[in-house]
Design brief:
The chain is mainly α and about 150 residues long. It has seven helices and no strands. It is globular and about 45 Å long. The relative contact order is 0.16.
Length: about 150
C-alpha cells in the first residue's frame, strides 16, 4: 500500500496532468448533454464492475454513489448539486474511463492507483455535497408507515 506522501505525489501529478485537464474540459459538455452523461455512467459502471477483488469493494461503492447522484441529476430529481461539484464528478469519471493517463490502466495492479487517489480526493473535496445527497437519497427511499 502506498504511503500518504506517495499518494499525495500521485494525486498532485494527476491534478496537474494534461489528462485531467482534458477530462475537466470535457466535463461541462457531458453535464449539458444527458444522453452523453448517461452513456458515460454506463461505461464507468461497466469498467468498475469488471474490477475483481475485495480490494476494489470500497472503490466500487464510491463510484456507485457518484452514479446515483448523477442519475438523480439527469432525471431532474436532485438539482441542488453545485455546478462545480457536478463538473468535478464528471471530470473524475472521464479520467477514470481513459486507459491512458498518469498511470496507464494497462499496468497490472498499479494501473488504477491514480484513479483511486483521484476518487479519494474527490470525496474529500465534495464531502458536504455528498452528505447532502446521501441525506436526500435516504429520505427519498424511506417508506413511511402510517
Amino acid at each position: 500500500m502506498p504511503s500518504a506522501s506517495t499518494s499525495d505525489n500521485i494525486l498532485m501529478r494527476v491534478l496537474k496532468s494534461v489528462f485531467f485537464k482534458s477530462a475537466t474540459g470535457k466535463a461541462s459538455r457531458y453535464a449539458r448533454n444527458t444522453g452523453s452523461l448517461m452513456q458515460l455512467l454506463r461505461d464507468v459502471l461497466n469498467k468498475t464492475n469488471a474490477l475483481k477483488g475485495a480490494g476494489y469493494d470500497a472503490f466500487r461503492e464510491k463510484i456507485a454513489l457518484l452514479a446515483r447522484l448523477l442519475k438523480a441529476y439527469v432525471k431532474g430529481e436532485y438539482r441542488t448539486v453545485p455546478w462545480k461539484t457536478l463538473t468535478r464528478i464528471i471530470a473524475v469519471l472521464v479520467y477514470f474511463l481513459s486507459p491512458i493517463d498518469v498511470i496507464p490502466d494497462l499496468l497490472p495492479v498499479i494501473g488504477f492507483t491514480d484513479d483511486i487517489a483521484l476518487v479519494v480526493w474527490l470525496f474529500n473535496a465534495i464531502a458536504d455535497d455528498l452528505n447532502a445527497f446521501r441525506q436526500w437519497d435516504t429520505e427519498r427511499n424511506t417508506v413511511s408507515i402510517d
